[in-house]
Amino acid sequence: NAGVTQTPKFRILKIGQSMTLQCTQDMNHNYMYWYRQDPGMGLKLIYYSVGAGITDKGEVPNGYNVSRSTTEDFPLRLELAAPSQTSVYFCASSLLYEQYFGPGTRLTVT
Amino acid sequence: ILNVEQSPQSLHVQEGDSTNFTCSFPSSNFYALHWYRWETAKSPEALFVMTLNGDEKKKGRISATLNTKEGYSYLYIKGSQPEDSATYLCAFQGGSQGNLIFGKGTKLSVKP
Q1: CB–CB of B95/B2 below 8 Å?
Q2: Nearest alpha carbon to residue B84 among B8, B33, B20
């Protein structure tokens, strides 16, 4: 099993550009999550999904969109990138309790 | 607003020292308490998931206790080694479908 994979690993965006962060898991987990991690702060939940076709907002959803068309994939979309979205983004999945994290995407918006 | 507090924020110990840190969380609507280990440039890895008051979990030199009535959990590391250097995160889960609320972590540095 590859576990949770994320692409790209790094990305620099200009203000106003859009991009999609990809997340895929091969563990057949129903639950998937997107977090962002800023210096000195804990992981903040952006969006989550309890299964294909179902998504919901987390703590900090503004400026982001998600979709969950399959169990495996949970892409995160930034439509109009802003400097405040400079962060490290982690995708995670879980079956019950334990969440498995991907390697992260470091995004810089300038 | 649910708050999860971890202390201390950072800790520097010598190799061989034993250490412990604290996670405080809401005592109401408790479902589970998670501990993660997060090495620099890697992703968080689960250490323990604790669900019952009085739970004690152990993995090698690392152990954790849980008090849901007063809303705290302790993580202990016995005989710290340089490879234990990492940030240790705790996360509160309220309800079976509740999302995890993470603390800011305790950053442990172990000097050889």
Answers
A1: no
A2: B20
Could you tell me if B74 lies within 8 Å of chain A, comparing CB atoms?
no
- Which alpha helices (DSSP H) does A1-110 contain, by range? none
**A101 touches B: beta carbon within 8 Å:** yes
pLDDT in tens, A46-63: 999 999 999 999 999 999
| B71 membership: H or E segment, kind and range | none
CB contact under 8 A, A90 and B102: no
Two structure tokens written together for B93: 């889960």
CB count in 10 Å sphere of residue A36: 23
Please tell me which of the candidates B43, B49, B102 has its beta carbon nearest to residue A42: B102
- Number of Cβ atoms within 10 Å of the Cβ of B38: 19
Segment B68-90, tens digit of pLDDT: 999 999 999 999 999 999 999 99
Whether A43 sits inside 8 A of B45 (CB atoms) is no
